[in-house]
Amino acid sequence: MSLDRKPLLVEGTSRVPGSFRRLVVVGTSGSGKTTLAKDLALCLEIPHVELDALFWDPEWAPVPRELFRERVTQALSGDEWTTDGNYSVARDIVWTRADTLIWLDYSLPRVMGRLVRRTVRRIVGREELWSGNRETFSGAFLSRDSILLYAMRTYRRRQREYPEYLSRPEYEHLNVVHLRSPWAARQWLEACRTGGQPAGTFD
Q1: Which terminus in the chain has less CB density within 10 A, N or C?
Q2: What is the pLDDT of residues 155-194, one digit of tens each?
């Protein structure tokens, strides 16, 4: 299913036009959603909301569904923000309020390579994530709940789901930016910073 129904064109301004002030970044785990969302927030001088931080309580305990939806609703109540994540339980809230959706649509080998490197870095560096949680070797490489297995299991599903969801009437207001490589993402971000003209799809 084509995503060409609504190409995004950023005019020659110093930043993303004012109408693009609520941006959500989606894609397979490890594709760099949070990094891009944070970079966009800095570029646009608007808040960044990380959905993972709203979903995970200490000891990797997911919050109850309704509490998560309440947190998301409150966090995205403002007029300007960037956010990132694929939570289907809150998709209706996030996508309805967003004006722009950025899909990081990278190949599976590229995503998995990035994810493995990120996971190893977090484990070795004892990097603290949300609510004091940290990734562990056993959790990442030996568990059935491994983020690596999750990424492999969901990759094809996301390829099917995103075009289908984006074709629905309730999401036709979204400006869709379809980025197919990290290079494309860097070019698009740089164009936003310098007032270039990034199009809706980069190969």
Answers
A1: C
A2: 999 999 999 999 999 999 999 999 999 998 888 888 777 7
The per-residue pLDDT for 2 is: 42
- CATH class of the domain comprising 22-202: alpha beta
For the chain, give the secondary structure using H, E and C.
Answer: CCCCCCCCCCCCCCCCCCCCCEEEEEECCCCCHHHHHHHHHHHHCCCEEEHHHHHEEHHHEECCHHHHHHHHHHHCCCCCEEEECCCHHHHHHHHHHCCEEEEECCCHHHHHHHHHHHHHHHHHCCCCCHHHCCCCHHHHHHCCCCHHHHHHHHHHHHHHHHHHHHCCHHHCCCEEEEECCHHHHHHHHHHHHHCCCCCCEEC
Q: What is the CA radius of gyration of the chain?
A: 17
Domain boundaries along the sequence of the chain: 22-202
- pLDDT for the residue 200: 47
- Among residues 185, 175, 7, which one has the least CA distance to residue 110? 185
pLDDT of residue 32: 93
